[in-house]
Predict the 3D structure of the following.
Amino acid sequence: MARNRNREDELWWRASVGNHDINLIMNNDPDLKHFSLETVGAGSLFGVAWELLGRFIADNDYLETISLSTGHHLTDTEMILFFNGMKNGSAAKEFTLSGNSFGLSGIRSMVPSLCSWNLTNLTIIGSSCINAECFAVLVDALHGGPIETLSFNACNLQNISALEIEIDDTFPHLLAMDCTTEDISRCKLPYLHTLDLDRNNIQNISSLEYYTHLKELYLDGNDIGRDGCMVISKLLQKEDSSLRVLSLNSTSMGDDEAEILASSLQHNTKLTDLSLLDNQFRVKGCMAFLKLLNDISSIDRTYNSNHSLTSLDLPRSIDSFSCGLKKHIDFVRRINEEQEGNAEAAGRAKVIETILNSRRRMCLSRLQGIDYSYGRVFTEVDPDLLPNVLALVGGKHGQSVRRINEEQEGNAEAAGRAKVIETILNSRKRMYLSRLQGIANSYGRVSTEVDPVLLPNVLALVGGKHGQSEMYLMLVAIIPDLASIMNKKDVLKQEVAENVWTAAVEFGAGDKSRRKTVKKNLASIMKKKDVLKQEVAENVPTAANEFGAGDKSRRKTVKKKR
């Protein structure tokens, strides 16, 4: 007995050389939370040393995660020894086996430990010997347990039917869980939240239809085909589906499969992340997702489009049309992202930015094969709902002026000045509001109402709030005739001054006939002033049009006037 103990100590000492963590495990050190054994460290473990390692891990009270990435050092023989020492499981909640060489015998050696182990996360990566039979053994061992995350990544699974059981009375405790009886009674892993089956050879995934409690599902690199898409479609359409993340990269998905998937998400409010990279669908499939996120056919359908999908990765575009289509998809996806958790705000934003934006609506209508006209849009609106539609517009464009009234309450002059700056002198808002109110939109029309003497003040308002581009537009509309107008005004001022002085002298003289002459002269001056105003109104828009026209000689004339 003493001889065996000495032999164990010798093996353990050899195993611990160069791996300080092994000694910490043996001493039950509370500071060691994560243990990782890789190829170099595993090379010093022989025979019974694997069993000792399993025993000390089982006796450790502080380990949280265990990772064994030992390559060819962990075969069926070592697995049997390791789990023979770890029969009663471990305190650790996460267990990872990566790049090892064991197969079915090694998997079976895990069963006694798994049955008594409160494991929540099991990951097996890069083991080509792990097939569907190995998967079934592990799932049966974990059946009804607290496992939350299960990963079989880059293994050799052909099917996952072991996840499903038939309805019977064998497991009555499952019926008490917070799921529908039909679904939960057919799930062997009722607490499973994350299932990663990337890079296997799985084709049949029918057992996943009942896993409505799944939150994340990864099936990259599996040729699931049309039948697989139908299974996922049924899962996504269930009211109690909890799936938030779905990754189906490189699953040979074509246009038909993409349409099936997009259709299933029309009323789904849970899925937020969908990845479909490296698949085979192109324009038709992408169009299905555009319609899912923003159905432009009516205000109601746009408002009730899918607003929960905030991340969507589609196959790489191979032509300019597909690239443009994906830009429209990304535009409405960003609205979902910005308004995440607020479907009402997202719907309102889409209506405003697409239905009530003539340029985008025209483009999207063409893409979706829908008649483009404002009449078509508003004939579909129930008159009783018109206030709601106007409220949508007000939410984007009306709230700003209401806010101005609130901020400038009691100061009508300041409120009026702020509205002029924010709407009249802001080309984008003025264009939109002019369209809504049926008013012609041009800087020339606006500028005829501006007294030239006040031009520096107006430009200061524009420049201070909206920048040089708006100043330039104002100058284009007003400057050409400003010099001649100012000259005429100076002449008029001088004539007024002279006549007023004469009138004062003559009025003082008391000559009745001369008073009549003065009144006549003043009337003539006022008439000239009216003519000048009219000339300003006529010449400013003309100048703006000439300045924007392509006639080089007319531009020279305008510049000469300046």
About this structure: The radius of gyration is 39 Å.
